[in-house]
Design brief:
heterodimer, A: 270 residues, mainly alpha, globular, B: 289 residues, 14 helices, 71% helix, MetI-like (chain B), MetI-like_sf (chain B), transport (chain B), transmembrane helix (chain B), transmembrane (chain B)
């Protein structure tokens, strides 16, 4: 018992040290310029919300939140639809084709996106999709499919075949058996796919900088990046922008966090 | 019976839409990238000719590119060792029956969900050279964390470890939760102390989690871009330049698209080689257990 108590104290101390950057982030965002320079590490006294109001308009956070939301949500729907569908075939077909396609998809986890970066940029330009939501959605769906397919395939392999077979013997088509019977059983792994892909897509910086920079359709990280560039020395203002830019995805994570560990557990078994 | 069984297996058409998108976004551009690496394409117009291995020869003669290769390998090594070490300790800590363990898990994982470019800006403040602010103010130091060329690369590594130690923790935790409690009880009855139980029960059974963690952190380290781009942009001098920042600059600042994809191909080969070695070595270790 005493050892558990000691461990608890050590872990909490580690967590407090670990949170120092977050403490700096929150307290600095609530300070006026005088407090920032005189008492950088103290608690804000009194706290001020001015930085938040100023950062919201200076970083154009409203429009970029809309852009990020549209791109993330549509990409997630596409990833869950296409990924679960493909994984159903890959997990169930014990043929050479099924195995070959599975390996082909896994290759995408290892390949650095930089290898195809320039040809893809050219392709997206030729398709007239630079500076559009559609271009970004296509990109995220393609780039995250390998990881999504990997998670779904592992999970479906561990599911008994009998559910779908029973439905099919009763006369359901493959499509009906999948959408009505199998897909609802995939809920836990769909939660994992949702949260991990949402984190990646919402936070991605480089590709939207390249594809959306200057288009007026910038996502949150790109807007924050250019905003920080303008107000680089005003940490109160910059940190208020960072807090608001990170908040939506942190909230989504807090709601869905139980799926994170579950998803990894099933991945390790699969 | 066999015919019947295969009639119950879904058709490959289920995989066709995903395959199409994957081919357009990943496969075709990657293959084209390999080809561009052997050309002198400038990115403007169609004019390009095959130049054989000239781009690779140029990489060997390019001090900046070779320096960035060294930086990338050092950074990756530091991140892999420290991130997985810290991640394992955290996982062992929050796996124990602590009252605060649910909260601790959320705290340690939280930085993973924040955009790397935003984490870099936050750490730019933490690494402030001002002795009264940031990490210096907290520890009473006067280090120019990102401005001193001999320190900057390790500062970047520290920031990356802070962000992703929670990711390693969660994967180790999933591994720990898969170890049956009976094995620990049996070892305890046999008189094994905590260290012996870790060495002979926990550690061997963590092999699959270790494989995944080492692979993910190695690949992540080799490809690192956002954090460096936002925190130092490769500086001071070329002290924190990585393969990813160099290939970005060669393409979008200097317009050398052919040369840039050659660097990307070198990066891809490193990632592939490391993944292959890790998979074959670590898998054989898993089987041997």
């Amino acid at each position: 018992m005493r050892r558990t108590f000691l461990l608890e104290v050590v872990m909490i101390a580690a967590a407090v040290a670990f949170l120092f950057p977050v403490y700096a982030l929150v307290t600095l965002s609530l300070k006026d310029p005088a407090q920032l320079s005189q008492t950088p590490l103290a608690l804000p006294n009194p706290p001020t919300g001015d930085n938040f109001a100023k950062a919201w308009s200076a970083a154009a956070l409203g429009p970029s939140l809309v852009n990020s939301t549209v791109i993330t949500v549509v990409s997630l729907v596409a990833l869950i639809g296409l990924g679960s569908f493909a994984a159903y075939f890959l997990a169930r077909a014990h043929t050479r084709l099924g195995y070959g396609l599975y390996v082909l998809f896994l290759l995408g986890i290892v390949l650095p996106f930089q290898l195809g970066m320039i040809p893809l940029y050219r392709l997206v330009t030729d398709l007239g999709l630079i500076g559009t939501h559609a271009g970004m959605i296509l990109f995220y769906t393609g780039i995250q499919l390998p990881f999504t397919v990997f998670l779904y395939t592992g999970f479906i392999r561990a599911l008994p075949r009998e559910y779908a077979s029973a439905a099919q013997i009763d006369g359901a088509s493959h499509l009906t058996a999948f959408t009505r019977v199998v897909f609802p059983l995939l809920r836990p792994i769909t939660g994992t796919v949702l949260i991990l892909n949402a984190v990646f897509i919402w936070n991605d910086f480089f590709t939207p900088l390249l594809y959306l920079g200057g288009s007026g359709f910038e996502t949150v990280p790109v807007s924050v990046f250019s905003f920080v560039g303008q107000y680089v020395s005003d940490y109160g203002l910059v940190f208020a922008g960072l807090v608001m830019g990170a908040l939506p995805i942190v909230l989504v994570f807090l709601v869905l966090q139980r799926y994170v560990i579950k998803g990894f557990s099933s991945g390790l078994k699969g | 019976m066999i015919r019947r069984f295969s009639a119950l297996s879904p058709s490959w058409l289920f995989a066709a839409p995903a395959l199409l998108v994957y081919a357009v976004v990943v496969l075709y551009p990657s293959v084209a990238g390999v080809l561009y690496a052997f050309t002198d394409w400038s990115g403007i117009g169609e004019g390009m000719s095959f130049v054989g291995l000239a781009n690779f020869q140029a990489i060997l003669d390019d001090e900046q590119a070779m320096g960035s290769l060294g930086n990338t390998l050092l950074l990756t090594l530091a991140v892999v060792i420290v991130q997985n070490g810290v991640g394992l300790l955290l996982a062992l800590g929050v796996h124990a029956k602590l009252r605060s363990r649910a909260l601790l898990r959320v705290v340690f994982f939280a930085p993973v969900v924040v955009s790397p470019v935003m984490v870099a800006f936050l750490w730019k403040y933490v690494y402030n050279p001002d002795p009264s602010a940031g990490l210096n103010g907290l520890l009473g130091l006067e280090v120019d964390w990102l401005g001193d060329p001999s320190v900057a690369l390790w500062s970047i590594a520290g920031m990356v470890v802070w962000q992703y130690a929670g990711y390693s923790m969660v994967i180790f935790l999933a591994g720990l939760e898969g170890i049956p409690a009976e094995l620990h009880e049996a070892a305890m009855i046999d008189g094994a102390g905590p260290l012996q139980r870790f060495r002979y029960v926990t550690w061997p059974l963590l092999a699959p989690a270790l494989t995944i963690n080492l692979m993910l952190s190695t690949i992540g380290g080799l490809k690192l871009f956002d954090q460096v781009f936002a925190a130092t942009n490769g500086g001071p001098g070329y002290a924190t330049e990585t393969l990813s920042t160099v290939l970005y600059k060669q393409a979008f600042v200097f317009g050398k698209f052919g040369y840039s994809t050659a660097i990307a191909l070198v990066l891809a080969l490193f990632v592939a080689a490391v993944s292959l070695v890790q998979i074959s070595y670590l898998r054989s270790r898993e089987v041997a257990q």
